[in-house]
Design brief:
The structure is a single chain. The chain is built from 17 helices and 28 strands. By secondary structure, the protein is of the alpha+beta class. The strands form eight sheets. A six-stranded mixed sheet has the order 4-3-2-1-5-6, sandwiched between helices. The chain has a six-stranded mixed sheet with strand order 12-11-10-8-13-14. α12 packs across α13, α12 packs across α17 and α14 packs antiparallel against α15. The longest helix has 28 residues.
Length: 602
């Protein structure tokens, strides 16, 4: 049975059942965000409500259901995928565009006066709930956030994940949990907070030097944390933490309580308490358990900034990981070229062989996200994923886009490379060259410490805009340390809010990944990871510059080298010289020969 048949059979039936519950409960509109109580990017199956109800499989999207309408709001990365997956479901694709209403705005404009909107408050950010309530108030519409309407109709709902929690140990864990807790308490004291409530899983895993596997691709575990001036409590299912680890945590002043006890713990905080929390990173359903007299101290989780700033010891491990990851990529590309034209290769083959190459490398734990291997037209979908039911054979002429990454004990990788298949067209080479020029422009940039990261986006886009071309996603995101492949607070995207928390600081790792997408034809993206490094001081202040961390050749057969400036050519040749020097000792045979050929001077 193919995916489309599954959608046509199940989604209309599920919508009808949900609408029946809405009618009984007096609900005019149901909002289903792509979220869990931890506001994670990748969700355990238990909280995949939007996917279950709509049939849309993308990682981001917001579903709204009324008696006569259903729509999923997604940005340009998912338009083609959503159009295909929603076909025949009775659900409309709602394209997120500048100046057009998103899901929250649509609800504010379309729900009848004195009506009711329902959302599971357990999975809606406090900041978003406030924004929606403000919009609904003008029409005297109620927001009902105390119920999960899907619970009644979702048969066979997956259970909560129950994978074991384990320690992230030295030498890879370079700062102890006691030191991290001490630094956090100092930040709490500076804000006058008695308690700090954390719901985001990567913040919790980083703070306690623990890891897990409850969420695909992210080494985190389902939990909450409540930090006091003298005590720290980790709320996680008891059978996930074995007795030896529990004793270690207790010796470090960390008490372990059941995951479900977080509601009672929040309710038990004294009315005179001042609780630090991030309204964008905790849900309204959780905050409602606090005593009404508790004073909220709102701001970015201190751990979010702390974990974004990698120390020198961590960067040493990351550089080693980048070399191992680059060597795995060289082995894969050498294999791929040797087998191309001799046997049937598909997008699935790329995933299988590249994942196997990474798995052979020391310290490898898992992929850091689902590999994107996209040939020609499939590359025009930035978050495309090949499946058994729908994938392309790699044959003929064109471009193969490969976006992939790994989780290692000493770091997280994320890289995109373009591969020529047969003879790429002139237009395809023009796009690859233009995108590379954008990546080089930002990679070479120097900028003041503390500049708001969204402001850097235009540097990468300038060479692309010069030819009246653009791309719909951001240019870069933060990357964790054996942690989530997407992390904040920095984000290189002009669409993002220029808030103080996005300021660039030394030690932050970000991606640089401009692109070009031509629907139905091909897509181009080239991506490296970089780290902010001290460049020096002048009379105008402190300056930072990027050190490129990713080590893998950029295939010049996809390019028009004559269209590179002297400075761009110098950067590319210098980068390839570094890649060759760092990776050659880790390779031999065909992989070494491939490296030497692909790093030749242009």
């Amino acid at each position: 049975m193919n995916v489309q048949t599954t959608i046509e059979q199940h989604v209309p039936e599920r919508l009808a059942r949900v609408r029946a519950v809405m009618a009984r409960e007096g609900v005019d509109a149901l909002l289903v965000p792509s979220a869990d109580p931890h506001l994670s990017e990748y969700l355990p199956g238990y909280w995949q409500g939007r996917r279950w109800l709509s049939g849309f499989d993308g990682s981001v999207g917001t579903l709204v259901v009324t008696a006569g309408f259903a729509g999923v709001w997604v940005d340009s990365r998912y338009w083609e995928q959503a159009e295909r997956e929603l076909a025949g479901s009775g659900i409309e694709l709602m394209k997120l565009l500048p100046g057009k209403p998103g899901a929250l705005e649509w609800l504010g404009d379309n729900v009848p006066a004195q009506g009711a909107v329902a959302v599971d408050g357990a999975v809606m950010a406090l900041a978003s709930a406030r924004q929606l309530e403000e919009r609904l108030r003008a029409r005297d519409v109620r927001l009902l956030s105390d119920r999960d309407l899907l619970a009644e109709v979702w048969e066979g709902r997956p259970a909560l994940p129950g994978n074991a929690v384990y320690q992230h140990l030295p030498p890879y864990a370079t700062v102890s949990r006691q030191e991290k807790l001490g630094q956090l308490r100092q930040a709490m004291a500076e804000k006058g907070a008695h308690w700090h409530f954390i719901a985001t899983l990567d913040d919790i895993a980083w703070l306690f030097n623990l890891r897990g596997s409850d969420v695909s691709y992210n080494p985190v575990f389902v939990s909450f944390a409540l930090i006091g001036e003298r005590q720290a409590t980790l709320f996680v299912e008891a059978d996930k933490v074995d007795a030896p680890l529990r004793r270690i945590l207790e010796a470090d002043g960390v008490q372990v309580r059941a995951y479900s006890e977080i509601h009672a713990a929040l309710a038990a905080l004294p009315a005179s308490s001042r609780v630090l929390l991030d309204p964008a990173r905790v849900t309204c359903g959780l905050v409602k358990h606090l005593n009404a007299d508790v004073q909220l101290v709102e701001g970015l989780n201190p751990t979010t900034l702390s974990k974004s700033r990698k120390g020198d010891a961590e960067l040493q491990h990351i550089r080693q990981v980048m070399a191992q990851d680059g060597a795995a990529l060289c082995e894969f590309f050498a294999w791929f070229e040797a087998h191309q034209g001799r046997e049937v290769l598909t997008e699935l083959t790329v995933d299988e062989q590249l994942s196997a190459a990474r798995a052979r490398r020391p310290g490898f734990v898992s992929l850091s996200f689902s590999t994107i291997a996209a040939f020609n037209a499939n590359g025009a979908m930035p978050h495309y994923r090949a499946t058994e039911q729908s994938h392309a054979r790699i044959e003929g002429d064109g471009l193969l886009l490969i976006d992939s990454g790994g989780q290692y004990l000493g770091g997280t990788t994320d890289i995109t490379r373009m591969v020529p298949i047969g003879t790429p067209s002139l237009a395809q080479k023009q796009d690859c060259t233009r995108v590379l020029k954008g990546m080089i422009a930002l990679s070479r940039a120097s900028f003041p410490r503390g500049i708001l990261s969204p402001l850097l986006d235009a540097i990468a886009r300038a060479p692309i805009w010069a030819d009246q071309v653009d791309y719909g996603h951001g240019t870069g995101h933060g990357v964790g340390y054996f942690m989530n492949v997407h992390e904040g607070p920095q984000v290189i995207a002009y669409q993002a809010a220029t808030t103080p928390q996005t300021a660039m600081q030394a030690g932050m790792i970000s991606s640089i990944e401009p692109g070009t997408y031509r629907p139905g034809a091909w897509g181009v993206r080239i991506e490296n990871l970089v780290v902010n490094r001290e460049r020096g001081k002048s009379e105008f202040g402190d300056f930072l510059a990027f050190e490129t961390l990713t080590l893998c050749p950029i295939d010049t057969r996809c390019l028009l080298p004559e269209r590179l400036t002297a400075e761009e050519r110098e950067w590319l040749n210098g980068y390839h010289a570094t890649v060759r020097e760092r990776l050659a000792p880790l390779l031999q045979g065909e992989a070494l020969a491939w490296l030497q050929a692909r790093t030749a001077t242009v």
